[in-house]
Amino acid sequence: MEAYLGIDVGSVTTKLAVLDESNELVTDLYLLTQGKPIEMVQQGLKQIRQQLPKDDEICGVATTGSARYLAGVIVGADLVKNEITSQAVAALNYFPQVQTIIEIGGQDSKIIIIRDEVVTDFGMNTVCAAGTGSFLDHQAQRLNMSIEEFAQRALESKTPARIAGRCTVFAESDMIHKQQMGHRTEDILYGLCQALVRNYLNNVGLGKDIQSPIVFQGGVAFNQAIVKALQEELNAEVIVPPHCEVMGAIGAALLVHEEMVNSNNGSRFKGFGISEMKYRTSSFICKACPNQCEIAQISLNGQVLARWGGRCDLWERSQVEEMDDNRR
Fold first, then answer.
1. Stretch 281-303: mean pLDDT, rounded?
2. Which domains does the chain show, CATH number per domain?
3. Please, are residues 69 and 305 in contact by the beta-carbon 8 Å criterion?
């Protein structure tokens, strides 16, 4: 059977999803990146190989997420796509009438506005942690509880505490103040959920035309207390897809399926054996201009496979030209 693999490598989690030729989900995987994107991609491939039926053949691979270029080089991706496109395609596949996509991940968050099945606007937050999942994770650790217990107890709140959520530092000091005043833990927890939602809507969602149907994606969508807070703040139903945590990877797989069908070319996928290879990453400062960009590069057996990270395409272009010279 033909299968298509999508890989979404973020700063906090790495997700893999495999679709069959009918775009049905065959298997998926959700791993913590732990600051080791190469190792996690390799580990993910090893586990996915074990989960796939033996007669399935990977006919296309796409990468997305903040480390999409790095992952693309490692696996031999046929397509590299940004997170906005991947998330939108996945949502439209399951909910063709969707008009707003809310995506909250570990260290960034996004809003995607869709009209007539076309992305018309979007916003991103990659700076302030107060509107992301790491904000809740940090507070859960501080209170010595799992994020699952955090969500469950937050839903038990009757009179949520008002927490200042414009900044993680202020939110934490305000939470400590509310504890000292004697507020119930459940009320503080749900107050933190409301603070995250307010921060998200006041920053990422500022000025956006949020209309129903609204789909909520990303790992934070597992937290039913956040879903409840969103619905209360927006006064609208918020839909959580069955595979909310891997929607980016699903979108990438959908896109590469379409790409491979239209191109009639064979896949560049390097195979599952790359999970055993030893890659090396390094960086250097480019001194070609006053910008002095830090250029990242990945090597295998002493050979540079790719470079990226500059404000211009000098090093990416030079790598392509070098490969062309070697072919002559």
1. 86
2. 2-87+247-276 (3.30.420.40), 96-240 (3.30.420.40), 279-327 (no CATH)
3. no
